Amino acid sequence: MSENGVTARRSKVLTIDTMNATVKKVEYAVRGPIVQRAVQIEKELKEGAKKPFTEVIKANIGDAHAMGQQPITFFRQVLALCSYPELLKDGNFPEDAKHRARRILQGCGGESIGAYSGSQGIECIRQDVARYIERRDGGVPCDPDNVFLSTGASDGIVTMLKLLVAGEGRSRTGIMISIPQYPLYSAALAELGAVQVNYYLDEEKCWGLDISELQRSLEAARQHCNPRALCIINPGNPTGQVQSRQCIEDVIRFAAKEDLFLMADEVYQDNVYADGCQFHSFKKVLFEMGPEYSNTVELASFHSTSKCYMGECGFRGGYMEVINLDPEVKEQLSKLVSVRLCPPVPGQALMGLVVNPPQPGEPSYTTFMKERTGVLSTLAEKAKLTEQILNTVPGIACNPVQGAMYSFPRITLPERAVKEAKEKGQAPDMLYCMKLLEETGICLVPGSGFGQRDGTYHFRMTILPPVDKLQILLSKLKEFHQRFTQQYS
Amino acid sequence: MSLLRDVSPRLWSIRSSEQVALAKRAAQITTELQQGVKKPYKNVIDVSWGDPHRGGLKPLTFVRQVVATCLYPSLLNSEALPVDVQQRAKSLLGQCDGGSVGSYTTTRGIPKIVQSVSEFISQRDGGVQSSPENIFITSGSQRSLMMVLKLFVQSEGFTQTGVLTPVPSYPYFNMALSALGGTMVPYHLCEEQGWKLKVEELRRALHVARGHCNPMALYVINPGNPTGHVQSRKSIEDVIRFAAEEKLFLLADEVYQDSVHDPSCEFVSYKKVLFEMGPPYSNSVELASLNSISKGYFGESGFRGGYVEFVNLDPTVVGYVYTWFSLDTCSAVLGQITLDIMAHPPEAGDPSYPTFSEEIRSIKDTLASNVHRVQDVLGDLPGISCQPIKGGMFAFPQLHLPPCVVQQAKEAGMKPDVLYSSLLLEETGLSVGAGCEHGQREGTHHIRLCIATPEDNMEDVLNRLSTFHLRFMSRLS
Which ranges form a coiled coil (chain A) (predicted)? Predict the structure, then answer.
């Protein structure tokens, strides 16, 4: 049938069949079906629906401000001054904030944070990042030219993966990632059509990393792909473990021996709570191992403004530092980042402040330190509380939350529950989490979204809600678990 | 020997930008000037970027006041800020989780802002319905383009996805397409007719392409970058009809929709025209329309904010599209806030309205004046000609370079317009974009200048350009 010479379109251009196959494979549990249901329930509550709870507690995403954590005053003051420079005349703003704002504005086109920046990021901020890295790592030099500001750490991670993924069939790039992992990695690997190579963290040993497991995983992978990189998240997400220095050295040695590119996701570097644990940057350890390693092992380290004590997720700020990259490859990297124009300038400015905070003697120092210490000590308290309470529940076993922002306890599910889930085509821990959401309003992410050993079930819960809410949450969870276990026995 | 040496061949194929080399040289010259090196000019003027703030235009006061207050809510009690600023900031903060712009938002964007955007679109399009369900707020139109392209671009052989792309075009689109492994199917805009888009040319390009790739989409930029042409309603209808006949997904890049300088021209959106054409077009042609806070009067390029509105997406792909967009977690919140103001600016009667509308008027006048001056000055120069600048943010004049210059460039291993731009930079400190970056007909040469700059700066730009050009042309005779 023709109308005006146009045949009625029988099908669309973009259909499930013509769609990019790799995009179809992408899943992102943190924003997945359970979160969508939570949002729906919130809507229903607003519309007056009666439920056994009055609010949805979103303990699914690592968003500190959403849970009531306050921003760092100094950072917000500087950013306000940068946004509206008229405020530089306002006596209510401290001098050190104004000084930093002026410096940032001078680094911006037309002295406006609304101008595009170069794609690698504003130069004076990259210099500040380099100095921070040097201070943090006890003097190990950092070249600002190896620093790339990014739109959150995710942008940097995906960019590096794009550089790494090549080949076909048996020579297709494999990327080693821990199980459990932060699902951005699995999603990015799916999107890029890379081979995901899993190495299991040891739940019995506090989610520790075993070199023999890395070896096993690598050898198995070499049968069907070309493993080229090893990703490690330290402190860990969702697991919260803080790797020991020895472990980091072992991983570096392994990467060197097996010719693997190291990707070190260190966005939680300030979130270390447990006694005896300390953050060691991969870069620092690499350089302390001497030139045999520090001149050869290729490394990309990632940081972000979304976590630590700042919790500024909405700014999409971050950076990566690349070490020992071939100059030609670095040129490709520069080309690749230029395609996305530039990271949000306010996020760049914020990153610049995170790495260059108030110093002793400066007017804002005392308040800054008070706020920073306050946030981190509260998180430490909540980490301990979470571990303690969860471990009082029969059927829930929680490893110490040494760092980061989450607990990832193991839950024992009755056989009947597992069976029902399988019949529904659902992961058993998804069934558990969905029921939890419907009955208590608590939104968690099932462990299946992060990866786990077959036959084990977990959930990821953030430690971010305020202490009193966290206590309520944990007690409701305890009740639910007992009820659930009884129901299905 | 680096592991990364075997970087995906697809990435090597992203054309290296000669503009980058020019930009590096411009930065170098600035440093030299700061170090006291003597040159025939005191500063570098950079009009190679499409960046109003870099060009010297000021941000809108209301935007920056609201943003500052959202960043530092103590300002809600400040007597120095107008009441409507505080009200807007309070309302926006109330929509952020935890009352903070540091929280993630939902994938699509803050729901009330998405709603505002849908109302803005509907109002702009004379009442054509717009639903928040079809809108995603993103970190800028470049991000929108990359996300949308990824949905259907495949990179293998006969099935390699082709996208009809205008020549000249916005170079970052071409780079993004390349990076994804797609291929550009160039269609030439007709320079002699004011950069008109001709359907016969679309047809020719498509016919050629079908032999070696799978053309799936048609990318249009209206108003044009770098050309400044504004499509007539009829032209848009013709394109839509063509897309329907040939089964192509329409990508309408409309980021310059607020920049129409010629009073006889009018921006009309692809969506509006599509709907007014009625069925079968209105319920079948797939369209993604893009807008941004980077251009127009706002110029907030560094905030990274924009949106994409989908029309007639197949229901089976909607869920996948949502999951795909959720990978970014969310777009930059300050960009979302700015978008809210763009969608819902101060109204008559609001305390900030006089300043706001005055600032808009001033930018409008500046651009109109710049357009006149550029056309006057270039019109008087021999060896350079410029099509009427109906809209957009650039002038894209053609350089009529004699064969000896072309030869000289060839011997230097440079494109002729890059050679011209390099000499222009060295001798006058004026940094412009080279036409080859955008694509142009074989044997033609152009430069691109951003006209979003204060009038006195525009004069300086035109002085430097004409001085250089006259000297350059006389050297050759």
Answer: none
Written as six digits, the tokens of B326 are 């959720």
Q: Cis peptide leading into B280, omega within 30 of 0?
A: yes
Instruction: Check whether residue B260 and residue B138 sit in a common domain.
Output: yes
**Terminal-residue alpha carbon distance, chain B:** 53
Q: ipTM greater than 0.90, yes or no?
A: yes
Q: Compute φ and ψ for A148, nearest 5 degrees.
A: -120, 115
Separation between Cα atoms, residue B422 and residue A263, nearest integer Å: 40
Question: Given CB atoms, is A43 within the 8 Å cutoff of chain B?
Answer: no
Contact of A55 with chain B, judged by CB distance below 8 Å, is answered with no
Give chain B's domain count. Answer: 2
- pLDDT tens-digit profile, chain B (477 residues): 456 666 666 666 666 677 788 888 998 999 999 999 999 999 999 999 999 999 999 999 999 999 999 999 999 999 999 999 999 999 999 999 999 999 999 999 999 999 999 999 999 999 999 999 999 999 999 999 999 999 989 776 558 999 999 999 999 999 999 989 999 999 999 999 999 999 999 999 999 999 889 999 999 999 999 999 999 999 999 999 999 999 999 999 999 999 999 999 999 999 999 999 999 999 999 999 999 999 999 999 999 999 999 999 999 999 999 999 988 889 999 999 999 999 999 999 999 999 999 999 999 999 999 999 999 999 999 999 999 999 999 999 999 999 999 998 999 888 999 999 999 999 999 999 999 999 999 999 999 999 999 999 999 999 999 999 999 988 876
Q: Is residue B232 part of a domain?
A: yes
Token pair of A317 as six digits = 């700020």
**Per-residue tokens: A206:** 């506090």
CATH of region A101-354:
3.40.640.10
Q: Is A69 on the interface with B (CB under 8 A)?
A: yes
- Candidate from A6, A26, A112 with C-beta closest to B241: A6
> Does residue B389 contact residue B395 with C-beta atoms inside 8 Å?
yes
Closest CA to B217 of B288, B142, B157: B288
Residues 331-360 of A with CB under 8 A from B: 332, 335-336, 338-347
- Check whether residue B34 and residue B180 sit in a common domain: no
Look up residue B26 and give its two tokens: 């411009």
Contacts of B299 in chain A (CB under 8 A): 114
Written as six digits, the tokens of B469 are 């050009």
- Among candidate residues B282, B309, B343, the one where a domain is terminated: B343
DSSP B164-177: EEEES--HHHHHHH
**Domain boundaries A21-68+368-487, corresponding CATH code:** 3.90.1150.10
Does some domain include residue B6? yes
Closest C-alpha among B363, B359, B365, B331 to residue B65:
B359
Question: Are the beta carbons of A20 and B151 separated by less than 8 Å?
Answer: yes
Q: How far apart, in whole angstroms, are the C-alpha atoms of residue B261 and residue B253?
A: 18
Torsion sign over Cα B454, B455, B457, B462: positive
Q: Which residue has the tokens 């930008």?
A: B17
HSE value, Cβ hemisphere, 13 Å, CA-based, for A205: 10
Q: Judge if the upstream peptide bond of residue B223 is cis by omega within 30 degrees of 0.
A: yes
Side by side, the strands of the sheet bearing B287-292 are B135-138, B306-311, B287-292, B249-253, B214-221, B161-167, B183-188
Interchain pair B68, A316: CB under 8 A: no
CA distances from B37 to B33, B46, B426 (A): 5, 19, 13
Using CA coordinates, name the residue in chain B closest to A465. Answer: B98
Q: Which residues of B touch A116 (CB under 8 A)?
A: 49, 51, 54, 294, 301-302
Calpha distance B188→B166 (Å, rounded): 6
Question: Whole-angstrom Cα distance, residue B103 to residue A78?
Answer: 18
Distance CA A24, CA A17 (A): 10
